[in-house]
Amino acid sequence: MSPSTTASAGAARPTPPPSPSAPNLYAPRALTNMSRLKASSVWRASESDMLEPAMNGEKSGRTGYRLHVLYVEDGKGDASMASKLFELVKHRYPEHTYSTRPLSDALALPGMQEVLRPHQATTQASTATPSSSDLSTILANLTSATSRTDLHQLLLRKLVVHCAQTHTCEAILWADSTTRLAERTLAETAKGRAFTLPTQTRDGETPLGDVPSYYPMRDLLRKEILSYTSLVSPDLGSLILEEKPRPAVSTRDTSIDELMKQYFSSVEREYPSIVANVVRTTGKLLVERVEEGVEGRCELCDVVLRGHAPERSRLCFGCIRILQGRETGG
Amino acid sequence: MPHYPCQTCHISRAQILRPSTGTRLCAPCFTLAFETETAATITSSSLFHPGERIAIGASGGKDSTVLASVLQTLNTRYNWGLELVLLSIDEGIAGYRDHSLEAVKRNAEVLGLPLKILGYEELYGWSMDAVVAQVGRKGNCTYCGVFRRQALDRGAAVLGVRHVVTGHNADDVAETVVMNLLRGDLARLGRGTSLVTGTGGAEGGFASVKRSKPLMWAYEKEIVMYAHHKRLDYFSTECIYSPEAFRGSARTLIKNLERIRPESILDVVRSGIDMARLVPGAGGEGGSGSLRVEAIPRDAEDDTGGGCSGDNGEDAGGEMARVEETLRLNERAEEEGTETEIRLPAKAVNGQRHDRDGLHTGPPAAALPATVNGQNHDRHTHIPDIAVVPIRTKQEKKSGRKTAGDNLPPRQRLGQCERCGYLSSQAVCKACMLLEGLNKARPRTGIEVGGAGG
């Protein structure tokens, strides 16, 4: 495995990216996610504190870094509202670079067609760039809400990492709160992927590529961030996509992620330290040792397959679960 | 409702939709499949050796009843030559065990297995009713849980048996995984999912008794189905003294998970096994294979509750609140920098705290913005250290471990209780401590209050 999980990206990265200019920090955003939306503003309050050590040798001003803010359109929820808010964010913080990508772009990433659309891939191999309707079809063919959420998150992550690479960014900042990380911890545990948690929820390198990930709001509870948005001035409320409480549907249509969200929102209310403790506990686990280049990786989520997949499988157990029953399930 | 044929024999009508596989089977094919899978768990890990004497921890509940039935069936079918004994523990709570012990007695007769019932009274000199009379209802679960953990081992030693099997199922193990994550208990996270645990105590003593859970891959639902179709006689009861908290919270979550995706129970178990390998100092770093067959050392704190549906013997009421309180205090201590004084001394202190609270908050994580640079740096430089820790066999003590920093969870150094010889991280094990407290208050002369007949 890679031992260089460290907070100070600038110092620890053995091979700096070929970027001649000031390093680009990449701030991915999916506006449908409330916590992520808040992120951009929260960084402003503390960003110099947090990011300065990463910028060794770039101390020529208050900000030795540049933020590139990415909005991934995923077609979920109120897309027009989200786009409108994104414009507002751009307007409020004009000093950053912004870009927008549709989530379906992730389907064009190497290997995705083969895994997700095995039939099309052979016939009309990469003729056209995949459209949003292609993505909707793929998602609709999955048999459960959990699989859909899972694949959605996988693709989002892959696309963000890919964009960060193409923009030669040095780090990716995620807006996950402690509460969100705790939700992910239990959700991934329930999906049989707990072994990826140390790399998925820790600051530093990820198995997805050579752009390290950071979670600047990892020590904040969701409710704290919410309070913050109304306490700063100017108020951030107008920039935030309000999350409509989902109507109570049958458990069968809930995803594991949604269940964990509900669970931790109740735990957070009464026992906030327990939420933080879940994240801290998994943070203490070791990162699995990997022999680079030798070991096969899951074609969908890039985890090492050894011990986590059936023999000669190209997918890990977790991703097999995502795709299982797809053909028959309709 | 449409009729489906059994997907195994294709003849009979399917009666069962298996939660673990989603296949539809007839009852005989299901029971056979269930037995075969249990046999596979046992043989693939060489759990038993031919002729071994095995005590089945029998509570009269569904899990242990099914375990006894399956083991007896398999023992005959495959000629394992095991010598099976039923071992029941009677906590001495009036009315609580009566019906379940009756069920155990009937089972022993039906299965033709010898049965030994041992009471807390015989093992410790205190029945639970006597303990409750002494300490009151609050906190009595601690006694029950601590006593129970040793009770099976002590009972096994009385019978001269070196291996006790318990009826823990996949749901139980999954619950334990979630619970330990919530409690932040890395040490138990590293042990709760292992098929076999051994105390590693001195050979011959009751502390060297091996413990295993052959049903750890079996769904609770399937166990109920198996019991139903085999017409097994079991009794289920909730302990009258036991409220639910942490385990209750985890249990609800697991049940909801199962409703969403039935496979997720096994996925949680698998995740638990994976995480156990990644617990620092677990000795399995980078190891391969998902099934741990070597006996993992267990200690007095392990989750081996049998029969008590409440939390692991601890005083479950308000446990979440108590953990929350402890965490908050720890956090404040870290922020104020007052914790260093506590943390620097010997490991034993850490271990003790861990024991008491079931928690250890570890490094300063809730760092204030003003110090975030220094703290973050401090925190993350540990990680490469951990990553290159060489594989250690579990016998090796963590002598050179100090260099890896205090980021590592305190690993309990297991010694033996100087009074009873049971494995303990303290000089005197918890059971003996509790007993000492109880016995102190007990009048030396046998004066009885209320004179029940004497």
TrEMBL record, chain A:
Low complexity: bias regions: 1-13
Subcellular location: Cytoplasm
Family matches, as Pfam families: CTU2
Stored InterPro entries: CTU2 (IPR019407), Rossmann-like_a/b/a_fold (IPR014729)
Disordered: annotated segments: 1-26
Pathway(s) the chain acts in: tRNA modification; 5-methoxycarbonylmethyl-2-thiouridine-tRNA biosynthesis
Domain of life: Eukaryota
HAMAP family: CTU2 (MF_03054)
Family: Belongs to the CTU2/NCS2 family.
Record's protein name: Cytoplasmic tRNA 2-thiolation protein 2
Species of provenance: Rachicladosporium monterosium
From TrEMBL, chain B:
InterPro entries in the cross-refs: CTU1-like_ATP-bd, CTU1_C, Ncs6/Tuc1/Ctu1, Rossmann-like_a/b/a_fold, TilS/TtcA_N
Domain Cytoplasmic tRNA 2-thiolation protein 1 C-terminal: 415-445
Family matches, as Pfam families: ATP_bind_3, zn-ribbon_14
Protein's name according to its UniProt entry: Cytoplasmic tRNA 2-thiolation protein 1
Function: Plays a central role in 2-thiolation of mcm(5)S(2)U at tRNA wobble positions of tRNA(Lys), tRNA(Glu) and tRNA(Gln). Directly binds tRNAs and probably acts by catalyzing adenylation of tRNAs, an intermediate required for 2-thiolation. It is unclear whether it acts as a sulfurtransferase that transfers sulfur from thiocarboxylated URM1 onto the uridine of tRNAs at wobble position. Prior mcm(5) tRNA modification by the elongator complex is required for 2-thiolation. May also be involved in protein urmylation.
Family per record: Belongs to the TtcA family. CTU1/NCS6/ATPBD3 subfamily.
Localization (cell): Cytoplasm
Keyword Cytoplasm in record: yes
Enzyme Commission number, as recorded: 2.7.7.-
Class of enzymatic activity (EC top level): transferase
Pathway participation: tRNA modification; 5-methoxycarbonylmethyl-2-thiouridine-tRNA biosynthesis
Region (Disordered): 298-383
Compositionally biased region (Basic and acidic residues): 321-332
